[in-house]
Design goal:
Largest sheet: 2 strands, antiparallel
Number of strands: 2
Number of helices: 3
Distance between the termini: 32 Å
Order of helices and strands: HHEEH
Shape: extended
Strand content: 5-15%
Helix content: 40-55%
Structural class: mainly alpha
Strand order of the largest sheet: 1-2
């Protein structure tokens, strides 16, 4: 059976109480304010600019600026930010697409 690419129907879920929603919001805010939030540290260190295309960001579109881990290890977060670079979502996708293409091409060369 081939997989279907149709959108899924919404699944009925448990309705959360207001207390559960408040706890979820508190936890998410605490995670953002936590000192181990590497995104905030990277934005402070490297600024609000894409390292690849040079696009500058403002508060209203800052969500489009992401942190790329140069070595691919999301747990490698040195305090000096040497493993990070701020990339816009488009450049970030391009960076990962290049790695996938390189892996594919390396695999096809081995088969020949």
């Amino acid at each position: 059976m081939s997989p279907s690419f149709r959108p899924r129907k919404p699944q009925p879920g448990k309705v959360k109480t207001q207390e559960e929603l408040d706890a979820l919001v508190r936890r998410m805010k605490a995670e953002q304010a936590a000192p181990d939030n590497y995104r905030q540290r990277s934005l402070k260190i490297h600024g609000w600019i894409c390292a690849k295309c040079g696009r500058e960001f403002e508060l209203d579109n800052l969500h489009l600026l992401t942190v790329h881990h140069r070595d691919g290890n999301h747990h490698n977060n040195p305090p000096d930010g040497s493993n990070w670079e701020n990339l816009c979502v488009y450049c970030h996708d391009d960076e990962h697409s290049r790695a996938i293409l390189a892996d594919y091409l390396r695999g096809s060369e081995k088969k020949e």
